[in-house]
Amino acid sequence: MNKLKFILLSIFLFVIGCSSSKPTNTFEDFRCYPKAVYLIRHAEKMIIEGEKNPELTRVGINRAEALPGALADVMPGFIYSSEYTRTQQTVAPLSKAWGRDISIKTAQEPQLQIEVALSHCDQNVVIAGHSNTIPHLISLFGIQDEISIEDNQYGDLFIIQWQKGNPSLSIEHVGE
To answer: Which structural domain range is residue 61 located in?
Structure first.
């Protein structure tokens, strides 16, 4: 019996002695990011005094209808919008083209939007937001560039992709 204990203890110590005390991989090595996150401000909205939730103008609808074409080479993924009609109308044509529902995430909870987007490992994510929310979301994704969107600025498609855990930003334009 003592001989068996001695053999087992020897094997245990041998295994422990041969293994590295320092792990070869860290938690960050296993971090998975979305394939890409596409952020777009809602398209042109109607200006109606006192209206806090206006719909898109005809020009805005045309821009929204151009979004599926701009993302034609992108594998369908997840679509998020704020609770406002104009953001939902902006991604509605993409939702139809991709056969995916639009998930609503309130504009007042940017950290939740980031967490949800980052949960989609190796998937594409589209977020429709506002001129005062998109720049903040971009910075929360780790982009250092100073981004601002003017009140009359529409159609910029901000694309965030990761290389070895580092985010990079590119900008394309949707519509006319």
So the answer is: 25-173
Residue 109: both structure tokens together: 């909870």
Q: Give the CATH number for residue 95.
A: 3.40.50.1240
Alpha carbon distance 155, 142 (integer Å): 22
Residue 146 lies in a domain: yes
In total, how many domains does the chain have?
1
- Tracing tokens 């599926």 back to the chain, one arrives at 68
Q: Is residue 7 part of a domain?
A: no
Task: Write the pLDDT tens digit of every residue in 79-114.
Answer: 999 999 999 999 999 999 999 999 999 999 999 999
For the chain, the distance separating the N- and C-terminal CA atoms, rounded to the nearest angstrom, is: 84
What does the alpha-carbon distance between residue 113 and residue 100 come to, in Å, rounded to a whole number? 18
Considering only CA atoms, which of 100, 151, 165, 152 is closest in space to residue 126? 100
Confidence of residue 176 (pLDDT cuts 50, 70, 90): confident
In a domain, 1, yes or no: no
